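Dear U.,

For the methods section draft, I wanted the exact inputs and outputs in one place so we can describe them consistently. I've listed the two proteins in the order they'll appear in the manuscript figures. Please don't edit the token lines directly; just add comments below if something needs changing.

First protein:
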Amino acid sequence: MTEQVQFVVNERGERIAAIISVEVYEKMLEKLGNAEAILAFKQARAFGEPGTPAEKGVDRIEPSS
């Protein structure tokens, strides 16, 4: 499926904004969050920081009640 994108142009006809669906926007945000997490992981490894076991990482994000 090809997404339709509409553009807002200025008086010179230059594209200055894009109008996309909420679904596409949310997918973009999810991919950006994943990319940021991967970058943070790679930077931590580059500086020799130890990893965190998955269970502890999840507990930091979603503390058990």
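Second protein (the one for the lower panel):
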Amino acid sequence: MIVVVVTAVLAAPVGATTDDMARLPVSSRFLCTNCHILADPQAGSADLNDFGFDFLGAGRLWTSELAQLDSDDDGCTNGAEIGDVDGNNQLDDGIEFESSNPGLTGDCSSAAWEHMSWSELKDLFNGS
């Protein structure tokens, strides 16, 4: 009986994480680490990173508001990093996987910069 309860409790986070990954336009490259600090939340702490907290705050849904945020404060919007700049839950043309991790500071790739607006690019150079 105890084994069944423990197994059910341990299996719950994996199901939720799998469901959450399916709610993003793509999560094939970074999987759990889009939202979590560890690649395997069951291996230890399942702490959320900043994008994970923002995703949770958005009702665990990918929205245009979430796409416009820069959760990890690395100069790229979440949408640019995920590959859906406008947040319509449709991958942008030619995107097959995340260009960088929306929950990892300093992981803004050049591919994500291609989707930044002129004002976002100017802000990077002006230090705003």
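Candidate sentences for the figure legend, describing the second protein: Residues 2-126 form one domain. Confidence is low (pLDDT under 50) at residues 3-14.

Thanks,
Y.
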